[in-house]
C-alpha cells in the first residue's frame, strides 16, 4: 500500500487526506500549527492518523508522495527535506484531478477571480447543471471528489495551488488579469509569478478554451512568448474581437463560434469597470458550455456580490460602510477606490507583501478625505499618502479603526475597508478581518 503524507491540516489538507483514505492509501497528516476542532473531528471520523504542533521526520520522510497545502512555502524546512529525499510533492488540485473525470472550468488571476468563479457557478446552476464549486473558494475540491459526484467543477485556483500541479488539466481556463502580488513567495521576480499563473494552461488541447483579458499587458506579453494549444478567447473593453467578448455602444457582446449573445451593461448586477471584465469572462465560459442566451442574461442580472468583495454592509446616518477585506493587494484596492462616487474614509493596513502604492496616489488625492491605518506595519502608507490625503490616523484594532472612521465620516461619505495587504498580522485571514469589520460596524 502506497503511503501518502499530507502537510497542513486546513481545508485543503484535510480534503486531500480524506480522498487519499477513500482511494485506499496509507495516509498520515502533519501540521506544524494547531488543527481546528472542526478539522480534527473530520480526521477522526475518517480514521486518519495525524499530528499537530510538530513534524515527525520518521512519519513523513517514509512517504511515497507528499501533498502540500498551498499556504506552506517551498522554502519550509520540512519541504526541503522531503525534496532532498526525492519524494514527489504535489498539490491538492493535482491529486484530486487524478480521480476526477468531470469537466473543469478553472479561474486564476490577481484580482476578480473569486467574483468570476462565483458568477460562472451561478450561471451553470441557473442552467440546471450538476456543478461543484471549489479550489480557493467553498469546500475542498479533493473532499468533493471523495464524497460527491459532479459533472462539472468550477475551481478558483491561486498561484500557490497551481505551483505543484503537473498533469492536471482544465477544460476551460481563465486568467482574469495579472498584477504584482505575492512576490515575496516568488523571489521578488514578477516573471516567476506570471509563469505560476500560466500553469493553468498546461496540458490543454485544441478542444479546450483559454479565456483572457487582452487589455492586460502582462498577460498579453507572456502569451506572445509561449504556445497555448487551446482556443484563445479574449475579453476587452477597448476593441472589437471576432471571438470572445467586447463592448459595443452600451452593450456587452459575446461571440463564440457562430453564436452571439449581447446584454446592456446597465442590466449587469455588478457595477464598475472591473466587474464588466468579470462578467465578460464568465459569459464567454457560459457560451463555451453551450448555455442559452436568456439564462446567461438572467444570471448576470441576478448575481449577488461576493462576501468581503465591495460588500455593502449598512448605511448609518447616510454613511455607507463597505467591506472589501478581500482587497489584499494594491490592484484590488485600486478597483475599490475607482468605483467610489462619494468622499471616502479609507481603512488600510496589514502584512505588506512588497507593495508599491504609487498608482493609488491620484485616486487617493481625488477621492479620499481621510485614511485610517490598522496594524503595526503602516510606515509605507504614511510615506505614500502623507500630504496627499488631509488626515491620517493610526489604530491597532478593528474596533478602534471603525470608531475612528465613523467619527471622521460625514453624511454622504463612504467608509471603505480595502486594506491593500494580507491579514495575518491581526486576523486569521481576510474573511475573519471582514467579519470583525462588519460586527464592529453593526455595533456602532
What order do the helices and strands come in, and which of them pair?
Blueprint: E1 3-7, H1 11-22, E2 26-31, H2 37-45, E3 50-52, H3 57-60, E4 65-68, H4 77-84, E5 88-90, H5 92-97, E6 103-108, H6 113-126, E7 131-135, H7 141-147, E8 152-156, H8 159-163, E9 172-175, H9 190-198, E10 209-213, H10 217-223, E11 231-235, E12 244-248, E13 251-256, E14 259-264, H11 273-288, H12 293-302, E15 311-316, E16 319-323, H13 330-338, E17 344-348, H14 361-367, E18 368-374, H15 379-385, E19 391-395, H16 398-408, E20 414-417, H17 430-442
Parallel strand pairs: 1-2, 1-4, 2-3, 4-5, 6-8, 6-9, 7-8, 9-10, 10-11, 16-20, 17-18, 17-20, 18-19
Antiparallel strand pairs: 12-13, 13-14, 15-16
Helix pairs in contact: 1-7, 6-11, 6-12, 16-17
Q: Could you write a compact summary of the structure shown?
A:
The chain has 444 residues and is α/β, with parallel strands linked by helices.
Structural summary, described in words:
The protein has 444 residues and is an alpha/beta fold. Helices cover 35% and strands 23% of the residues. It has a 6-stranded parallel β-sheet, covered by helices on one side. It has a 6-stranded mixed β-sheet with strand order 15-16-20-17-18-19, sandwiched between helices. A 5-stranded parallel β-sheet has the order 3-2-1-4-5, with helices on both faces. It is globular and about 65 Å long.
Amino acid at each position: 500500500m502506497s503511503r501518502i503524507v499530507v502537510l497542513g491540516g486546513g481545508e485543503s489538507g484535510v480534503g486531500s487526506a480524506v480522498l487519499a483514505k477513500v482511494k485506499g492509501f496509507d495516509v498520515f497528516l502533519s501540521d506544524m500549527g494547531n488543527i481546528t476542532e472542526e478539522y480534527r473531528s473530520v480526521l477522526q471520523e475518517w480514521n486518519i492518523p495525524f499530528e499537530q504542533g510538530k513534524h515527525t521526520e520518521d512519519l513523513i520522510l517514509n512517504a511515497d508522495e507528499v501533498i502540500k497545502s498551498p499556504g506552506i512555502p517551498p522554502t519550509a524546512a520540512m519541504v526541503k527535506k522531503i525534496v532532498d529525499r526525492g519524494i514527489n510533492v504535489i498539490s491538492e488540485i493535482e491529486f484530486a484531478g487524478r480521480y476526477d473525470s468531470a469537466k473543469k472550468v478553472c479561474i486564476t488571476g490577481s484580482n476578480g477571480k473569486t467574483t468570476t468563479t462565483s458568477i460562472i457557478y451561478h450561471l451553470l446552476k441557473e442552467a440546471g447543471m450538476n456543478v461543484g464549486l471549489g479550489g480557493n473558494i467553498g469546500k475542498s475540491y479533493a473532499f468533493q471528489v471523495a464524497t460527491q459526484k459532479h459533472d462539472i467543477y468550477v475551481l478558483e485556483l491561486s498561484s500557490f495551488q497551481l505551483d505543484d500541479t503537473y498533469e492536471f488539466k482544465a477544460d476551460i481556463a481563465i486568467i482574469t488579469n495579472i498584477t504584482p502580488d505575492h512576490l515575496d513567495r516568488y523571489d521578488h521576480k514578477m516573471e516567476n509569478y506570471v509563469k505560476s499563473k500560466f500553469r493553468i494552461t498546461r496540458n490543454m488541447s485544441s478542444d479546450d478554451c483559454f479565456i483572457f483579458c487582452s487589455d492586460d499587458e502582462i498577460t498579453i506579453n507572456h502569451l506572445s512568448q509561449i504556445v497555448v494549444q487551446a482556443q484563445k478567447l479574449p475579453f476587452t473593453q477597448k476593441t472589437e474581437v471576432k471571438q470572445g467578448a467586447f463592448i459595443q455602444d452600451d452593450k456587452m457582446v459575446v461571440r463564440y463560434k457562430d453564436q452571439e449573445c449581447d446584454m446592456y451593461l446597465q442590466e449587469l448586477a455588478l457595477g464598475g469597470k472591473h466587474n464588466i471584465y468579470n462578467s465578460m469572462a464568465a459569459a464567454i465560459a457560459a457560451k463555451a458550455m453551450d448555455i442559452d442566451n436568456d439564462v446567461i442574461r438572467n444570471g448576470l442580472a441576478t448575481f449577488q456580490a461576493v462576501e468581503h468583495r465591495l460588500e455593502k454592509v449598512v448605511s448609518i446616518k447616510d454613511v455607507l460602510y463597505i467591506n472589501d477585506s478581500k482587497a489584499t493587494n494594491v490592484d484590488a484596492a485600486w478597483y475599490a477606490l475607482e468605483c467610489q462616487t462619494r468622499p471616502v474614509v479609507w481603512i488600510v493596513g496589514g502584512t505588506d507583501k512588497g507593495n508599491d502604492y504609487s498608482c493609488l496616489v491620484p485616486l487617493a488625492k481625488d477621492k479620499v478625505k481621510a485614511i485610517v491605518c490598522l496594524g503595526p506595519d503602516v510606515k509605507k502608507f504614511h510615506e505614500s499618502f502623507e500630504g496627499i490625503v488631509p488626515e491620517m490616523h493610526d489604530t491597532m484594532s478593528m474596533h478602534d479603526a471603525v470608531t475612528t472612521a465613523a467619527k471622521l465620516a460625514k453624511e454622504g461619505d463612504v467608509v471603505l475597508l480595502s486594506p491593500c495587504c494580507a491579514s495575518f498580522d491581526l486576523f486569521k485571514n481576510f474573511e475573519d478581518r471582514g467579519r470583525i469589520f462588519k460586527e464592529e460596524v453593526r455595533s456602532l
